[in-house]
Each structure stands twice: as C-alpha cells, then as structure tokens.
Amino acid sequence: MKNLDHESPKKRVSMHRKFTRRDLVKWGIVGGGTAMFGLRPAWVRASRSGSLSMAPATTPFLMELLPGRGLPPVSQPVTPFPTMEDPGDCINEDHSQAFHVSGPREVPPNTEFHLVQVAPVNHLFHPALPANVLWGYGGQVPGPTFVARSGTPQLVRFVNQLPEDDAVGIGLPTLAVHRHGGHQAPQDDGYPLDTFCPGQSRDYYYPNSPAAGLLQNEHSTTWYHDHAIDVTAQNVYRGLAGCYLNFNPLDTGSELDPAPALGLPSGEFDVPLVLQDRLFDANGFLYYDSFDHNGFLGNKFLVNGLIQPFLRVARRKYRFRILNGSNARFYNLVLSNGWPFTVIGTDSNLLERPIAVSSFPIGPGERVEVIVDFRGTILGQKIQLVNRLEQTDGRKPGDLVSPGVPLMEFQVNRDAPDFSRVPDILMPITEGPRELLSQVKIQRTFKFGRSNGAWVINGELFDENRIQADPRRGTSEIWHFESGGGWTHPVHLHNFEMFILGRDGARPPLLERGRKDIINVGGPYPNASVLIKFDYDFSEQPGRYAFHCHTTEHEDMSMMGQFEVL
Ligand SMILES: [Cu+2]
To answer: What is the whole-number distance in angstroms between the Cα of residue 333 and the centre of ligand 1?
Structure first.
C-alpha cells in the first residue's frame, strides 16, 4: 500500500539538504582550510569555547555499567505488524540505484517482529560533563542489543523520529541501517542510498539462516549502525550503533546446555563492550569537525557510551564481545594485571580453536571475542582493560606505549557458579581456503589511495552507477587489497566474508586466520590477498553490495565501491 506520507518529508528534507563531503569533492574545495571559510556550513561547528585540549577532566571508573545504562537492553519482539513499502531514497529522487521494494513483503510465519524508534536522547557520558543530545536507536546509546537465533528470521522496523533541524549540528537525519557482518538481501543491507527521512520508516528483513546450510556461516557477533550516504561518520559518532548477537545449535546462548553445545559463558556473563572515542570541547559538549577527512579522533574513551566505566564482575569466566565502534581509532588491548585473553572469535565468526594471547589489535569496525577468567582473583581486586596503542591522527595507528590508557575497569566483587566451558574446537572451518582455492578463476586488485584530498579505490570515487566487480554466485575469487601513502584502511566487504591468504606473501598472524569481514591494509599492515566465496541465495536477481574503508571519514569521502553478484 502506498504510504502518502512519503512525499512531504522528502521535500522538506531536501530543502534543508546540507553540504556533504562529496559536495566538497565536486566543488574542488577539499583539503584546504581558509579557502572554503566562507562556505563553511552552519552545521560545522567551530570550537565553542577555546582549546579542545581543555575538555573537562573526567575521573575514570566513576560510571558503573548497569542494565539500562551501559548494558543495553535486549530488543523484545512485538506483535506482528503489516510490512510496508520502502521509501527508496528519500533525498535524491534521481538516485536510480536505490533499492525499492514495492508493496508489503512476504515473510515466513516464524518471523519475529521488532520496532525501533530512532530518536534524540539526553545522554550522560560522565558526571563531570553536561548531558549531550545524541541520536539513539530505541532512544539509547548504544542501541538495544538484538539477539537472534539461527532459523528465526527477524523483521525490524526502524522509525525515523529525528528532528529535521537540529541545534547540535552533528549528523544528518537521513538514515540507512546496515547490519554489519550479516547476510541479508541487497534491499535489507542498508545500501547507502536507501535512506529514510524524518517521519518515514523502513523495514529490514534479516533471514538469520546460514548460506547454503554451512555451519561456518553461523554468525556470532555482528552489529548494526547507520550507513547513510556521505554522513555515516557523523551519524555513528552521534550515537547510531548497536550490537546484534547471533546464536545457533552450537553456540546456544546457555552454558548449561550439554555438548555438542559449546557451553560458552552466557546470560549476564556474556557482555558486549563497544569501544569508541569522542572529542569534547571545554564545556563538555561533543565536538565534530566535518572538514577533517583524515579520520576523526577523540580525547575521551568510551565503553558502551560511558567514559571509562567500571563493571562489577564475579570470580568466574566471562565472554566479552569487544567491538571497535570508533570512526578512525585503532586499539591494542591488554589486561593491566598481565593476564591473557582467550580469543574465541574475530569479526562475525567464532574461530576454529581458541587462541590465548596477552594482547591483540582491533581496528575500526572489527570485533574480537574473548574469554576472561576471573577465577584466581581476590575479592576487591581491580583489573583494567588498557589500550596501549598511540594514535595522533587518522593516518594510521602509532606505536605501543606503556602503560597506555585504561578504557574500563573490572571490579571483582563476588562469587558466582560457573558452568561454562571453552572447548578446544569451537566452529570447524568446513569450507576454507584448502577447499576453495582450487576453484578460483578470477583475481582482482583494489588499491586504496588518495587523490586530490579525497579517498579513492583504484583511483575512483564512489559512484552509484559504477560496479567495480561482478563475481558469479557460488564462485570463489581472490581479491588483493593494497594501500598507498602509508595510510591504514580497514577494508570492509558487505554480506560476504574473507579468508586472508597472505600479507605480502607471508602467512597472516594467528588472529587473522578465521573468517573476517574487515581487513586492515596499509601503515603497519602489509597488503593482503583474500579469498571470498560469493554464496548468494536471496533471489534470482543480481545482488549489489558495497565495500569500503571503515574509517568512516574515508568512507564518506568517498572510499567506497560496489560489487554485484550475478
Ligand atoms: Cu581508509
């Protein structure tokens, strides 16, 4: 059924359409400062009150991660509602490439329905700062956590209740929701031009069924965030991100389940931790400079939306799903007492076997799942999660420093029964490089570089009318990712996962031998050759998806391409 409300918000927003990074590229005014001073749009804030280095001091470990504040609630299903027609692109009607599903969709009868209002929220990062007006899925930051079970589809309606005009001036209220790491049809992938504006809604259907029935396609930690064209960096910075956890017949979500269930720590002992950095001005208000195209860094560190919080923990094993939700910052994590992490997953997937490490790197968009065992601690003990990686600009991560910056603190305060297990085999790789390599017929090379102050792939800016690769469904290809100029680019592929075959001919590090959906190249990361199998089973139609740099400022300007699975 045609929703007549679609017309008016579209016109209103397009009247207020703001300048974007790509406009600057078109006008040839990127890279400078003073030359474009007269064109500086109102939504680009000058520093409100002097030096940004003067942000108010924030004592660490004052804010406790608690249910509803730092530990987001799990999204609960609602009564099924009639699905609706997609708005298509709500800003630019001439974007012919936007996906438009006409009419309501047919969904299987066991589909769970969810409803998420995207709305402003008064958010307290820390008691020393004033409340900031953020944008939150479900009116909270991070957004509600989705819990999905393999075989149970979810249809999520996101309702855009953001204001058309906004005093804060960070972000644009045109939305596209991308489930990062998920397998979903092109119209449900948050294609950057499939935007919906204030007053509009969009339904996203997540099948939650492994492609081709492969065990290895059962996902673990995925996440969802805004992906609207040109403004992803600001919209995510403003708060639009959340976790999407996936359970399956092996990883059941209950440590009480007997083998073959894995029995990983579950319930309150399975905790997503979203790492982000944010820049605050001298008055404690969030600051963002849309003319910084290099990658925006903050002066405060957040975990789950709170500045350097603490979590009370019991003397037992925990599963922490660590997501780097930062725009441009890389981290290298250690525990302050020198204890190891047991890594069980990277990006969307569990590893084949757990790997014990004393530290690990994590770049923008990446996930690393770890088990931390607090047995052997004493009650009252405090252990910090510490970032040892220095970074001074968006170019690349710097050196390891000591002692580093604590991101949060674990405070051991109790005992609790622990029935959880960490088996030696987690998720067998049944179809990996060994099985797929002999089938490869096509190799492609993508160079991530810089041109005239903008970011390019093989010398080209993002163009919705250009397809950079057209793999055939069911086939495997080798893609070579290269970076120039010493910049690090976290390269993200939508909908499909990658095995790193090598980095400049060398075997990848241990933590890069599982399935990945982001591969860092450049700076300290050598060029990478990756194997991708294009499992695609959503329809007879070709599937068009984006791939891009996940330093979101690079992505917005305009380091993104697209491929079409034929
Ligand atoms: Cu980049």
So the answer is: 21
